[in-house]
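Exercise: predict the fold of this chain.
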Amino acid sequence: MTVIAILVFALVFLVAMLLLLAGSSRQMQETKQTVSRLDSLVAARRAVKEENLDILRREGASIAWVDRFLDRISIFPLLQRLIDQAGLEWTAGGLAIGSVACLACVAGGAYWQTGLAALAFGLGMAAGCIPTAILLKKRTARLGAFEQMLPDALDLMVGALRAGHSLNSALGMVASEIPAPVSMEFRKCFDEQTFGLDLRAALEGLTERVPIQSVRIVVTALLIQKETGGNLAEVLEKAAEVSRERFRLQRQIRVHTAQGRMTGWVLSLLPVALGTALYFMDPAQMSVLWQRPIGQKILCGAIGMTCVGGLIIRKIVNVRV
């Protein structure tokens, strides 16, 4: 009897193990199939994304080999993001070519007039930064305009939500009622949600396109409300109040620091303007600065100290809120 019981137990144990192995093998096979399907979908999505990016580059880039070079050294995404944030129709290749052209023209002219390679190179580098400075100026102006109109957009969303509309419909109303640049960015966010993108991903894309603190506050409030619940209209109303107070405080700071900013511009541009005027009045006397070794040292020291002083004043008057 003991032997029969042991044999029965062994047979039952063997059958159970075979069933478990069969089930686990089937589950592993299904898991592998699911993983392979997900990998194929991700690869297809990545290929479509890269194809769309290539199409956009071919449409927007007039100088393909420059864009390929910038993409190889990981500068293309940064430059293109800055151009998009500035709202300009430039391309990264065009910006690079413009900077090199400004550098070459100014450096060549300075070397032809003075014969000093170091001075010509310094002036050329300063001139080469002009297109980038224009780009950053446009970007700052556009982001400032966005921040100024953001409270009105939030008030419109609050009214739409209290009238019974959904958040997506409120975004669409902002895209159609508020002027640019707010309408452009909210239109992108509205279209992304319309085509099935998740709300979190759409809002994170908005913060990448508009990297200002007020937008981060609004997006954080929306995401927290989505996770915890609550009155969305009240959340947006509080965010609009915070944005208005930040904007008012920034304007007040700019008023109090206006004298310091004007002092920085005067101290930075006055030596250049005075030296240019004296050169046109008496070229022989001013040419001593770059024809003699002591004059070259004085000129380089003056340029360096002027740049350092301008940067220090700019650091002092730029107060972050």
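Check your answer against the key: The radius of gyration is 31 Å.
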